[in-house]
Prior knowledge:
CATH superfamily of the largest domain: Glycogen Phosphorylase B
Number of helices: 19
Helix content: 25-40%
Strand content: 15-25%
Mean pLDDT: 96
Low-confidence stretches: none
CATH architecture of the largest domain: 3-Layer(aba) Sandwich
Shape: globular
Bound molecules: adenosine-5'-diphosphate, alpha-D-glucopyranose
Distance between the termini: 10 Å
CATH class of the largest domain: Alpha Beta
Number of strands: 20
Strand order of the largest sheet: 3-4-5-2-1-8-9-13-14
Number of domains: 2
Amino acid sequence: MGGRVLSVASECVPLVKTGGLADVVGALPAALAAVGWEMRVLLPCYRSLRSLVGGWPVVWEEADLWGGPGRVLSGEVAGVQVLLLDAPHLYDREGGPYSGPNGEHPDNAVRFAALSWTAARIAREGLDGWKPDVLHAHDWQAGLAPAYLAYHGSGGVKSVLTIHNIAFQGWAPAHMLGVLRLPGHAWHPEALEYYGGISTLKAGLVTADWITTVSPTYAAELMRPEFGMGLEGVIAARGASVSGILNGVDTAVWNPGAEDPPFDRKSLAGKAAARAGLCAEFGLEVPGPLAIVVSRLTDQKGIDLLPAVIPDFVLGGGGLIVLGSGDPGLEGAVRKLAARFPGRVGVRIGYDEAMSHRLFAGADVVLVPSRFEPCGLTQMYGLRYGTLPVVSLVGGLADTVIGASPATLAAGVATGVTFHPVDALGFGQALAQVLALHAQPKLWAKLRSNAMAHPVGWETSAAAYAGLYERLCA
Ligand code: ADP
Ligand code: GLC
């Protein structure tokens, strides 16, 4: 059938990105267009975007967005139909989407309420004759959009909320209820109340017509206390309207051969040259497998386990390059590793898209030892580049990697190495397995070709989203 979707989020590639959310929001429009759904993306006009939008027409106006007016500009970027909410009093600030030089913006609840409010109004009323069938909200920043539809009238629009990471819940104090334009009758534990305050994510969870998350395993995990982070009961209560749809990756961007010479997808020729280039760049000499980490350096990602497991891996001939930034303690820990093993461990603290491509093209394995991982994208880049993923068996990692075991090796289907529970013992054993597998070139080549044959594009998941929209609108 097909139709129209208004997607609402705080990040979208190539305009603004702090993590995988941006990749997914930016990739969905093209993926859905292929199955007949036209998607526009509504985003805040952060300072970094202002210069871009000079000539864009104004298509919507809001008189009162919490202390000032707002207007929506419409344009196209990299094939994505973008709607930018320009409200300088909220978004024209130094820093990233959520924080400035002095930390998190204290008015984030209001900043993203304004985004959600505008989204709900556009969805309800339509924009220049463009009336969406579905409003698709992403994470806590857009959590109030389904709530505004539920409490102020939906205009027949269906709502979907996607959880990309339950760790971020969008908290506001109780006295903000009215300020956030939420009705008093919603103030109870079955609705918006959350530990004495308001959670904008919970608001979306209790009001959206459907809830998705970014992998089937994470959908199941979210209903358990170890992963639900306080919202497990809320999600379980909505269990009949929750599903997991795996993310894909943009195979035009992550495209060995075309995008990352000299690596050639068909023949694997050039992988060795790419690896040699990488070792030269970081001053490394690695006789065994070369591992990489490309990640936010946070507790979620299990980075703190590296100092416990890397010494044995290096002793066994392995090497490591880490590209990432985040927690200062973890940045220090990986720097220390590099200082301890010069010639074997390299570190680049920072964010560098071009370097991440070189790393996936040249490395042998990518390490993703996450404690929880809603989906994860880097293990999929690894599959695509024949850079075998070494992952903990949680969330989307469990749904995308087939770990080498006697059974999967015998069946010829393994695509990587997996471990659980997420601790130094399990991770260390996984790295020992990497060393053993890498020492058997024929077997390694087979794992590599399995990995590269594993589909990581958007086709299946785009069809799943289209099916969901169609069921909701039927
Ligand atoms: P999350 O969204 O939890 O950070 P994902 O694996 O879903 O995890 O997405 C992370 C995205 O950010 C990937 O596209 C990854 O390549 C990219 N990324 C993370 N850190 C860096 C970095 N330091 N330099 C370049 N890209 C990075
Ligand atoms: C979140 C998750 C990550 C997921 C991404 C995109 O940032 O941490 O696992 O891949 O969102 O959905």
